[in-house]
Write a sequence for this structure.
């Protein structure tokens, strides 16, 4: 009979579309924390007996123990984490379990659990971003004096140092951490007590539960409390911007690791290879960090679309809030950890003389030696020309004609292309260049010190990193320029 099928098949499809335990079981710790706070508040307010509260709290401990040793039965028939916990509580302690849900609804319960989860996720992201900043800072400090070409349009432009380049990411990740912290402070209000949508007639104490769960205060409007997910959207927006920054750093690592750039390499255990192309050292991890951005930005679009146009207050649409958020933060978590490890293990060799960029100020000076604006550049040029004869094709010789650096190590393997060689070359210049050199270096040193102060003030836990910003022309003395015609 079709009627029999009609009554059973919709029930199956209803369960299939309705069930969320597979996703929201991740909220178990938050659900238990919320239930404990709610239970204690109900007892204190005399809404339930202390004996019942004790039984409930004991039962919640037993539930937690089962979850921790993997024996808790997560069952689809109970739809979601809230009903699974409550059903199990009833099996464990019997009748008092029913009193836990007094003055509460799954609507404020899920709003609470999810908010607590997202708050933790934001805190974790801030901690990871600070760890990443710290890794980048140490590396930048280590390469404070190592030259590399700065790029625009991915064309070699002006000289910078690797330290200066890396510090750009330290700034980006600092703002990212700030965005997570902002989102956290706005979301840190408790929705508990809003119940289904209009609050509860029981004499509950929302301030007590809010304080116990680490919130600044209860949310002001109960309809808003159960029905907005802007806290999740805001943290996804912060995650998306962070992911964008991570993808740029990852992209640079990918490019730097190509043999054509040869700026960086990674140890074997952080790359993959190919059996038929043994020369390859694939930066898969960096590529995947770059790619995770797709999921993270996609999650922001997904949840924004779910929330758009929903009438107040709760609708079941909102059950679809968790998958994108879990997916985005899982991806971000992996990406942040991976990029930090990649960064700590990169071996850089950005100082290959073939890559030396042109100091445009010095070139201007060559073109217009009398221009007043070229005064400073002129001093720099004089420093260079006093010490060296500079050839167009990137060799540099001292006055005796000995090549001290060159762009063709295959033909003139006088010195390598390493950071160590650059340090040697820098020292050589310093001894030969006289007062002008010292003046410029002093200015740069002061700017370095100023910036290091600010970075230290801004970032707790990142102290003791002496660095390193705003010195784009620290190094022009070392760069070959066209000889005067
Ligand atoms: N699993 C649900 C969710 O995630 C819990 C809230 C259910 N509330 C309701 N009125 N059906 O949104």
């Amino acid at each position: 009979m079709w009627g029999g099928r009609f009554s059973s098949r919709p029930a199956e499809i209803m369960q299939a579309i309705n069930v969320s335990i597979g996703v929201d079981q991740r909220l178990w710790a938050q659900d238990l924390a919320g239930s404990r706070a709610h239970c204690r508040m109900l007892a204190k307010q005399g809404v339930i007996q202390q004996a019942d509260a004790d039984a409930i709290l004991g039962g919640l401990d037993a539930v937690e123990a089962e979850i921790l040793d993997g024996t808790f039965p997560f069952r689809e028939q109970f739809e979601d984490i809230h009903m699974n916990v409550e059903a199990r509580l009833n099996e464990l302690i019997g009748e008092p379990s029913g009193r836990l849900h007094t003055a509460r609804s799954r609507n404020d319960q899920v709003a609470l659990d999810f908010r607590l989860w997202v708050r933790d996720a934001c805190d974790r992201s801030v901690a990871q971003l600070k760890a990443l900043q710290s890794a980048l800072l140490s590396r930048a400090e280590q390469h404070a004096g190592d030259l590399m070409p700065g790029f625009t349009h991915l064309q070699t432009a002006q000289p910078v140092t690797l330290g200066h380049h890396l510090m750009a990411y330290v700034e980006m990740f600092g703002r990212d951490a700030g965005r997570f912290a902002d989102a956290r402070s706005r979301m840190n209000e408790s929705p508990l007590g809003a119940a289904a949508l209009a609050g509860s007639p029981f004499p509950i104490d929302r301030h007590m539960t809010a304080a116990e769960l680490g919130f600044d205060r209860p949310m002001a409007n109960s309809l808003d409390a159960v029905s907005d997910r802007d806290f999740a959207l805001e943290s996804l927006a912060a995650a998306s911007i962070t992911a964008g920054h991570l993808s740029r750093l990852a992209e640079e690592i990918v490019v730097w690791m190509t043999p054509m750039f040869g700026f960086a390499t990674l140890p074997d255990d952080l790359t993959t290879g190919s059996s038929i192309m043994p020369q390859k050292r694939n930066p898969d991890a960096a590529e995947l960090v770059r790619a995770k951005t797709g999921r993270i930005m996609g999650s922001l679009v997904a949840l924004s679309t779910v929330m758009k146009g929903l009438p107040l207050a709760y609708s079941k649409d909102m059950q679809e809030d968790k998958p994108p958020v879990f997916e985005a933060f899982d991806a971000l978590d992996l990406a942040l950890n991976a990029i930090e490890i990649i960064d700590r293990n990169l071996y850089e060799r950005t100082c290959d003389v073939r890559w030396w960029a042109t100091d445009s100020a010095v070139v201007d000076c060559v073109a217009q030696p009398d221009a007043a604006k070229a005064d400073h550049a002129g001093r720099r040029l004089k420093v260079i020309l006093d010490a060296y004869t500079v050839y167009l094709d990137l060799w540099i010789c001292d006055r005796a004609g000995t090549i001290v650096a060159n762009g063709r190590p295959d033909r003139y393997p006088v010195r390598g292309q390493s950071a160590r060689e650059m340090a040697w070359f820098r020292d050589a210049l310093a001894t030969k260049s006289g007062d002008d050199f010292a003046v410029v270096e002093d200015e740069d040193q002061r700017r370095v010190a100023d910036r290091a102060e600010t970075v230290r003030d801004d970032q707790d836990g990142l102290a003791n990193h002496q660095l390193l910003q705003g010195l784009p022309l620290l190094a022009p003395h070392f760069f070959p320029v066209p000889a005067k015609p």
Summary: DSSP finds 15 helices and nine strands in the chain. Residues 20, 24, 80, 106-107, 110, 314, 316, 318-319 surround arginine (CB under 6 Å).
